[in-house]
């Protein structure tokens, strides 16, 4: 009974890790699509009804369900087996061995559909958004020079924010994706040449960067977006303490993720080095 629980835990950890990571990626893409519609297609946005809370809840549920379905194979990748510590003590471990064709294909699928394609989509959308915001044709039509300068400053601020969002997505995700692909195709000799300590240091560094990305986006939005700050205050403050007062500038501008091993240590039967394990 205990072994079954440990096996279930070993298979669940990679699943939930990757599920959370993929859901985060899907959410970023969905938010970016909505931002693209609001800035580049303002006419359609004004004629379209604002999403209700129930509709937003449905979108969130769909994003999580998509991530759950996409991560189901992670339940079948980990192998629960017998092993030994260096002193010969028997123990049970979970190994994420990537050997079969379907496993390699699945890792490549995750890399393409949850890193390469989202990155390209974000890059294209934000380039178009930046071009629209940088277009000063509407600014020249205003007789009030002060208003035009304020709008131009706000537009430049949004362009910087969008650039940081794309840059952070690429920088924080690239190490973990690169390692996951390297682990699939690297030979055991290559991994041993890197060294056990070097391997785990590299893997830990990539994982920390990957999870930091989830915490970085809210910081960027709060630092660069007035609307996001107001929404944050509205969510976390009580109705009495929240003073509603959207700034004029905002109104003016609106018109214009690695699989973790569940073993407790390094074992001698594994030749002091883990089998190929993949990350998100």
From TrEMBL:
GO terms for cellular component: plasma membrane. It is a multi-pass membrane protein. The chain crosses the membrane at residues 56-80, 106-129, 158-185. Residues 253-280 are annotated as: Disordered. The lineage of its organism: Eukaryota, Metazoa, Spiralia, Lophotrochozoa, Brachiopoda. Residues 253-271 have a biased composition (Polar residues). One of its GO terms (molecular function) is G protein-coupled receptor activity. Belongs to the G-protein coupled receptor 1 family. InterPro entries: GPCR_Rhodpsn, GPCR_Rhodpsn_7TM. Signal peptide: none annotated. SUPFAM superfamilies: Family A G protein-coupled receptor-like. The keyword Membrane applies. This is Growth hormone secretagogue receptor type 1-like. The keyword Membrane applies. Residues 1-221 form the G-protein coupled receptors family 1 profile domain. Keywords: G-protein coupled receptor, Membrane, Receptor, Transducer, Transmembrane, Transmembrane helix. Its main location: membrane. The gene is LOC112042611. It is found in: Membrane.
